[in-house]
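tokens incoming
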């Protein structure tokens, strides 16, 4: 049997797909790059935005048409949505809740009569097939208890469950032994992590991973401002392997809107958190990058309330923000609210913030001019130019090497960097020579 997995959405989905791929391969499935030829096609879906949902409808139609005999499996956020199930009823074979991943074989068997071994019970115990050989997502839990009024995650993934610290540490140690350079601890809300047996919290876990020997970077996401404790902020300042980047979703600068979003904090609490985080980071050599998520045009958001978001946006000076135009998600609390901000107005608000973001990001990036920083090289573009990320999650384009700086403009076949040994997956020193709003350019140091 062959399989093909299409992953849409966040890091959790990427990580879940890695586990699913490993699980299928343990059972003798072979990965096929072509969705139109595989026996089983899994779409790991995202329901956070309407666009991501629409992509699933398009994909299912195309696969059913071009690969009519395939078993189509829908997992992820949309797998339990009754309206989606109704719409795709005749085209999808299996609706698979993420936590029930291990039951997939049994369900395929019912359709295909193929023999498989006994299934596992807990999907987080499945050893993943990592997509990268140097950067890994390590889930520390799954699900969410927060019920933000616009969000499908608590319905799609269920309540929070967390992995024992012992199990997480074992996975991280194995990765480090294999030479991994970047460990990303992920969950819907990492801050509320708790190991029920030992009582360890997320700050404890961070310190434990940080204290492991080896030259590696540590990251985590996503955080909820309401669970960002002083203990955790202190750990951010003291864990040296932890990268100087925090993704802390604010969603809105208006206290009234935050209340209706059921976010359990107000804008001043957010401001104070950022202040404390920046203060804790001052002993590190590099300014901490702050990134966020924003929703514009939430039901009832007035122009005045939007201006409060603009004000906060300017004050914080975000390095990056994922700005979404509100779209009602079936089954959520806000689905029942009147979606009364017009599409045109949402677009206008989105554009205003995007413009502002370009300015704040550029202002933050000016710090990097002529500095020598560490970069984890993660891919090559079509021209063969290496790209990577700084500890602060900035994208760095390596345009040449310091020793051959006249070759700044990389030619197709003779870049001096291309002549270097493969630097993919390595942490290298790069001197920043050009600063842009969403990217930096630099020269590889010897
Ligand atoms: S914290 Fe809110 S936005 Fe984040 S996953 Fe949970 S419900 Fe969704």
């Amino acid at each position: 049997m062959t399989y093909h997995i299409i992953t849409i959405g966040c890091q959790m989905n990427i990580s879940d797909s890695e586990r699913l791929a490993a699980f299928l391969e343990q059972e003798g499935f072979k990965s096929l790059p072509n969705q139109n030829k595989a026996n089983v096609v899994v779409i790991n879906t995202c329901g956070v935005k309407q666009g991501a949902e629409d992509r699933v409808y398009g994909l299912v139609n195309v696969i059913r048409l071009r690969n009519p005999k395939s078993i189509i499996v829908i997992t992820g956020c949309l797998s339990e949505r009754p309206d989606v199930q109704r719409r795709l009823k005749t085209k999808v074979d299996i609706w698979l809740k993420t936590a029930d991943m291990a039951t997939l074989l049994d369900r395929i068997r019912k359709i295909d009569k193929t023999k498989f071994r006994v299934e596992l019970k807990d999907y987080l115990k499945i050893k993943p097939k990592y997509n990268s050989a140097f950067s890994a997502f390590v889930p520390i839990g799954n699900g969410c208890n927060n019920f933000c009024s616009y969000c499908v995650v608590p319905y799609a993934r269920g309540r929070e469950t967390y992995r024992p610290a012992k199990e997480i540490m074992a996975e991280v140690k194995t990765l480090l032994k294999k030479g991994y350079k970047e460990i990303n601890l992920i969950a819907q809300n990492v801050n509320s992590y708790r190991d029920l047996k030992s009582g360890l919290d997320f700050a404890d876990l961070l310190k434990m991973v940080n204290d492991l020997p080896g030259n590696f970077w540590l990251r985590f996401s996503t955080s909820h401002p309401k669970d960002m404790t002083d203990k955790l902020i202190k750990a951010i300042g003291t864990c040296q392997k932890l990268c100087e980047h925090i993704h802390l979703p604010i969603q809105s600068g208006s206290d009234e809107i935050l209340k209706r979003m059921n976010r359990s904090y107000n804008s001043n609490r957010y401001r104070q958190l950022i202040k404390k985080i920046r203060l804790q980071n001052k002993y590190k050599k590099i300014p901490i990058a702050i990134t966020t998520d924003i929703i514009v045009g939430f039901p009832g958001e007035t122009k005045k309330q939007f201006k409060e978001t603009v004000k906060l946006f300017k004050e914080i000076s975000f390095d990056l923000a994922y700005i979404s135009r509100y779209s009602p998600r079936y089954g959520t609390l806000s689905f029942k609210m009147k979606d009364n901000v017009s599409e045109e107005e949402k677009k206008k608000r989105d554009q205003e913030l995007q413009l502002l973001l370009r300015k704040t990001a550029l202002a933050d990036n000016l710090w990097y001019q002529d500095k020598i920083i560490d970069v984890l090289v993660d891919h090559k573009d079509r021209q063969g130019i290496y790209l990577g990320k700084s500890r602060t999650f900035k994208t760095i384009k390596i345009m040449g090497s310091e020793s051959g700086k006249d070759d700044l403009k990389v030619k197709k076949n003779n870049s001096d960097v291309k002549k270097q040994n493969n630097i993919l997956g390595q942490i290298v020193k790069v001197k920043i020579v050009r600063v842009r709003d969403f990217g930096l350019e630099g020269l590889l140091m010897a």
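note: Residues 406-414 have pLDDT under 50 and may be disordered.
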